[in-house]
Amino acid sequence: MAGKAQSRAVGQHIFAAFEAAGATEVTPDILQPAEALLDLYGEDIRARAYVTTDPLHGEMMLRPDFTVPVVQAHMAEGAEPARYAYMGEVFRKQDHRGTARVAEYFQAGYEVFDRTDPEAADAEVFALFAGVLKPLDLNATIGDIGLLRAAVEGLDTLPARKAALSRHIWRPKRFHQLLQRYAGLSPVPESRVALLSGAAQSGAPWIGLRSAEEMAARIATLKADAETASIAAEDVARLDALFALRCTADRAPAMLADLGIAALSPAIERLEKRLAALDAKGIDLTALAFEASHGRATMEYYDGFVFSFEAADPALPPVASGGRYDALTRVLGGGREIPAVGGVIRPGLVADLGGLS
Amino acid sequence: MSAIKLGVPSKGRLMEQCFGWFADRGLTLRRTGSEREYAGAVEGAEAVELVLLSAGEIPRELAAGRIHLGVTGSDLVREKLADWETQVCDLAPMGFGHADLIIAVPACWDDVDTLEDLDAVAHAFRAAHGHRLRIATKYHRLLREFLTREGVADWQSVDSQGATEGTVKNLTAEAVADITSSGETLRANHLKILSDGLIHQSQATLFASRGADWGGLERPFAKLCAQLGVDLPTL
């Protein structure tokens, strides 16, 4: 494994490339207020954050990631459009041993906040990363969570079902179990049958913070769901085909159109625009992998374009990853939002793989 | 001369059952000195030394290599040791100390019986109350791994080292993840077990440390394994 000095030198080289691309340096604190961040992160980062108590500031955490503090800083005081770069340590507890499973490592990142042309910004970030990482000959993959969201939104079914499915796009197992349930393809649990027939009234004393009214509301939702027609099996098959789609990027729009999901059209148009922008930046689309499910299980808070660069060794984590996170700016913006895309490179892994010169 | 250090729970029924398990295989474990002294002796095997420890400390002692063998609950090893299989090797389930680690919710929640229900309720709860649905437990790792694998969101664990079943009534949690054998304490506290909420079925298990110094102990360890009727592991 590369030493700290070596990793830092690689990180500074990458950072210089980001600055040369027009980014302003941002230096978020290593110690971050924990509460807001813990609320935003998914279970994975939450469980792995180092949290401690400060006598004046309450719960603080060692930053597990730069994106959220950078978005917070931008939403608080940033001018538009903005391009930011950073380089520094992040901290994550590791539950498993293994190469590159270190609790403290460098990230060099580049984030773009620009509402003029989102697809051009996507291509700008990806092409910048591809250029920086060129000497390593990594495997690049792109995807688009926006396609998955559009396909779910386009289903002919109850809004409550679509909302439940959208919420679990990042958790494939639960997503597919729910989809099977809404399509009538899995048996209804006995307890649900009993509940809906009115037979499941425990009469147990009420305890806990959740109120009887909240339970009544859920039972009403379940009744409305039970009275609604199942999602058509063909629609489930189309979704499954979408999630399984893998091809080279140049063929992706045609393959997606062939799925016959009408709701995908606007998202496919955006993909075509993004691919054209990538092509204009000199990216070879015939050598770039497209996976519709890319980033689904690992890249929380990304909600559009996603990408990663990986080494041949499958035991190594991605050398670089990133994507679009418009929704996160909405959550942190207090009513304001701005299209945002960015990514990070792990200089330590780059150094392990031989460096950039 | 060096000896194989065998760590065994230092008190109560678990200790007695443990002594019984070894006695059935021709090894007599006993305390030396007074009832209160945590030292012991082993008869019927060569180069084995008894160390009496709190069951909860045995996983850590095994991981640190301060004992070679140890008896503790399979739940405690999985909870306390990251990547437990790389640190210890399970030699034999011992057939006692059975307990299930389960998730339980208020019995009055007529609409909740499965993890699917729990997940849906957690989402609505977070929207209504402004914080995630809290699950009280001391088994944070096992709970997190289970709910992550099952795709349950919008929950958080809160630490409870005792009287966990009371946390819901006390409004410090909405659900619990705890060990139960008969379920009586849960029922008495107006809780019910989710039908698919079984996280781990635990029992007392004999573990071997991968990190201990086994140098010069290969022969007595092979003989001991043969005597106990367990396969000699690769450590």
UniProtKB/TrEMBL annotation, chain A:
One of its GO terms (biological process) is histidyl-tRNA aminoacylation. Residues 18-347 form the Aminoacyl-transfer RNA synthetases class-II family profile domain. It holds the Pfam family tRNA-synt_His. GO terms for cellular component: cytoplasm. This is Histidine--tRNA ligase. GO terms for molecular function: glycosyltransferase activity; histidine-tRNA ligase activity. Keywords: Glycosyltransferase, Transferase. Homodimer.
Automatic annotation (TrEMBL), chain B:
GO terms for cellular component: cytoplasm. It catalyses: 1-(5-phospho-beta-D-ribosyl)-ATP + diphosphate = 5-phospho-alpha-D-ribose 1-diphosphate + ATP. GO terms for biological process: L-histidine biosynthetic process. Its EC number is 2.4.2.17. InterPro entries: ATP_PRibTrfase_cat, ATP_PRibTrfase_HisG. Keywords: Amino-acid biosynthesis, Glycosyltransferase, Histidine biosynthesis, Transferase. PANTHER family: ATP PHOSPHORIBOSYLTRANSFERASE, ATP PHOSPHORIBOSYLTRANSFERASE ATP-PRTASE. This is ATP phosphoribosyltransferase. The lineage of its organism: Bacteria, Pseudomonadati, Pseudomonadota, Alphaproteobacteria, Rhodobacterales.
